[in-house]
Amino acid sequence: MAELSIQELLGEDEAGLDLELLAGETGLSNKISVPRIQKPGLALAGYTTNLHPDRIQVLGSTELTYLEQLPRDTAMRNLAALCALNISCLIITKGQEPPDILVDEAARRGTPLLRTHHQSSIFISLITKFLEERLLPSTITHGVLVDVLGVGVLLMGKSGIGKSECALDLILRGHRLVADDVVRVRSKLPAVLFGEGMDLLHHHMEIRGLGIINIKHLFGVAAIRERKKIDLVIELVQWEDGQEYDRLGLEEETTTLLGIQLPMQRVPVRPGRNITTIVEVAARNQLLKEMGYHSAREFQDRLEQRMAETARLHSHTIIGDNLE
C-alpha cells in the first residue's frame, strides 16, 4: 500500500497546500495511508471511538472555538486522549493561532501540528485531491505511452523491437508523447488507469543511433502530454513464419494492470510493415468501439446473413427441382 510521510507532505509545493509546522517535529516520520480526511470534533469532546488515526485530522474554527470554551482540565484530558492514539497529524486551517495546550500536547506526544491559511472547505478539497493521486495504487511498466487522436496507447514489447521509433513517427504525424521507456501507471477510481513519465525521463526519448533526444525542445509543447488515460495496449511482437495471427479482429484479448483489464492487440513486426500506420488505425478503431461500432463484428454479421440467404435460396432451388 502506498504511503506518504508528514515530512513529504510538508515539503510538497506544487499542490498549493501552504503548510507550516507549529509543533511535533519528532513525528514527521508518521505515515498517511488513506486519502480520507477527518474532523475530530467528537474526539475533542472525549469520544474517540470512531476516530481513525491514519487519517489527517483537520481543525477549523468550530473545533478550536469549542476547545477554548472547555474547562482547561477537560480540554487537556481530551487532547491527551486524542494524541495518545498516535494520529498521523493535526492541521489547523484559516491561519488560526492554536491554543497553548494544543501546542504543548502535540510537542509532548510527537504529534505533528501543522497550519494552513486556506479555509477548511478549500483545504479539504486540495488535500483530498492530492492524496488520491499520491496514495492510489501505482506500478512501473516498460513501454511507451502516446496520445493518438485522444486515445492513450501503451506500446509494449521486447527491448529493441521498435517502440520508441514508432512513437517518434507518431509524433511527426502530430500525435503526442506521454512517456518513453519507463511509464508510471496509477489507478484512479473506479476502474481507470493513468500513465505518466518519470521525473528524470520526462519529455525525453531514447533512439538507438541518435541517443537521448528532448521531444519538448525539438517539436514544442504541443508534442507532449504530462499524463494520459490508458485506453489501449498494443504489444509489438517479432513476426514468426507459421505463427497464426488474428486476421479478422474478432479475438478481443485483454491484459491486466493493477487489477484493471485493458483491451490489448498484438501486432507482428517485420520489414515492410508500416507499424505507425497500424497503430494509428488501431487507435481510430478503438474510438469506434467505444462509440459502440465494431467493424469486425459488423463484417461477421453481414457474412452470416449472406450465408443464410444463400442457403435459403439453395434450399428453394432444390425444392423447386423436386416438384418438377
Automatic annotation (TrEMBL):
Organism phylogeny: Bacteria, Pseudomonadati, Thermodesulfobacteriota, Desulfuromonadia, Desulfuromonadales
Cited function: Catalyzes the ATP- as well as the pyrophosphate-dependent phosphorylation of a specific serine residue in HPr, a phosphocarrier protein of the phosphoenolpyruvate-dependent sugar phosphotransferase system (PTS). HprK/P also catalyzes the pyrophosphate-producing, inorganic phosphate-dependent dephosphorylation (phosphorolysis) of seryl-phosphorylated HPr (P-Ser-HPr).
Region (Important for the catalytic mechanism of both phosphorylation and dephosphorylation), start-end ranges: 205-214
Residues reported to bind Mg(2+): S164, E206
Name of the featured protein: HPr kinase/phosphorylase
GO molecular function, one term: protein serine/threonine/tyrosine kinase activity
Source organism of the structure: Geoalkalibacter ferrihydriticus DSM 17813
Entry comment, domain topic: The Walker A ATP-binding motif also binds Pi and PPi.
UniProt cross-references to HAMAP family, sorted A to Z: HPr_kinase (MF_01249)
EC number(s) from the headed UniProt entry: 2.7.11.-, 2.7.4.-
